[in-house]
Amino acid sequence: MTGPARATTRRTALRAALGAVGTGLLAGSAAADTRRTDSGPQGELRIATGETDGFYAAFGRLLAAQVTATYPRLSCEVVTSEGSVDNVRLLRARRADVAPALSDIAWAAYGGTAPFGRRVPLCAIGRVYENYVQLAVRSEAPLHTVADLAGRTVSLGAAASGGAVLGDRLLRVAGLTPGSDVRVRHLLMPQAARAMRAGTIDALLVAGGVPLPVLSGLDTHPGIRLLPLSGLLPRLRAGLGPAGSGLEAVSVPAGAYRKTPEVPTIGVANLLLCRPDLPAPVAAALTHVLVRRATRLVPAPALGTQFLDARSLISTGAVPLHPGAVAAYRELHG
Predict the structure, then answer these.
(1) What's the whole-model pTM score?
(2) Do 166 and 268 contact (CB within 8 A), yes or no?
(3) pLDDT above 90 as % of the chain
(4) Residue partners of 228: CB distance under 8 A and separation at least 6
(5) In this predicted model, what pLDDT tens digit does every residue of 51-73 receive, in sequence order?
(6) Is the peptide bond before 115 cis (omega within 30 degrees of 0)?
(7) CB of 154 within 8 A of CB of 182?
(8) Mean pLDDT (whole number) for 292-301
(9) Same fold: 3-129+270-333 with 132-266
């Protein structure tokens, strides 16, 4: 099942999951709140995020606020970055302690495949949100498929973002060679928005929540449409091997943007990653925050399309859960 039916089923299931948390994970964690108010880890936690206007940055700010509210002795610093690839590199360089990343990027890093030259030691705190891949063109442009971008200019986002890697792959499976068939630019979101308004790019790709502020602004002026992407999913998965299992068919809901009907696209799971040497009490604390404060960790613009699914938090695929997270999940289930 794909398209709108699949997306509706997923949203229904996620709403049900949050309801189930009240009698499942969260039922056992209310008492944990009392136990932990006067204890918990202490020190500094650096959370790498993404572009300032993006979904990762909004999530990182919320996560930092909820961690500090729950564990006052744990000080959080939010570190901006270019996105998933950059976040993995920051973890590897020990310039960040925890960071979100698209699942295909996380699994590539863990396995040492492109765009990483060698294996990156990683652990996960949990599988968190879905990123919606959104490829926008001007509403009046005669562009209706990815293949129509031949001879055009497209921004795939910051060079070290997961969206840029995925965008490159999308162009290729659509039969286009970046750099020859399509002129590719790597612009940050504010730059891409200005370029779209000026007409110096024909399309921009972003991956994040729905709606994304940068696209909402463009929808007001000059007006945008989203190109359907889910038809490329089988070929995209085939080229990614096991990492392709983190991709699924989803739909951007009708009305998410002023002039946009429901559009079938591609969803990519996000993992909240950490270094393997993150202290177990800190990993456990993060896990408790993800579970117990789930409803406070959804950026406001994405309410209604994003949920923390308690049933899938532990489904991190090739990247193993941190032992501290494993202990916390067991405690919460206990």
Answers:
(1) 0.84
(2) yes
(3) 70
(4) 145, 263, 264, 265
(5) 988 889 999 999 999 999 999 99
(6) yes
(7) yes
(8) 83
(9) yes
**Spatial distance between the Cα atoms of 181 and 171, rounded to a whole number of angstroms:** 9
Domain boundaries, the chain: 3-129+270-333, 132-266
Mean pLDDT, rounded, for 243-252: 88
Contacts (Cβ under 8 Å, ≥6 apart) of 241: none
Q: What is the β-pairing status of strands 98-102 and 74-79?
A: unpaired
Q: Supply the pLDDT for residue 245.
A: 78
Could you tell me which CATH class the domain 132-266 is placed in?
alpha beta
The CATH number fitting domain 3-129+270-333, selected from 3.40.50.150, 3.40.190.10, 3.40.50.1820, 3.50.50.60: 3.40.190.10
Token pair recorded at residue 219: 């929808």
- Tell me the per-residue pLDDT of 210-220, one tens digit each, with 9 for 90 and over: 888 899 999 99
H helical segments located in 22-102: 25-36, 55-70, 84-92
Please report which confidence band the pLDDT of residue 25 belongs to, taking 50, 70 and 90 as the band edges: very low
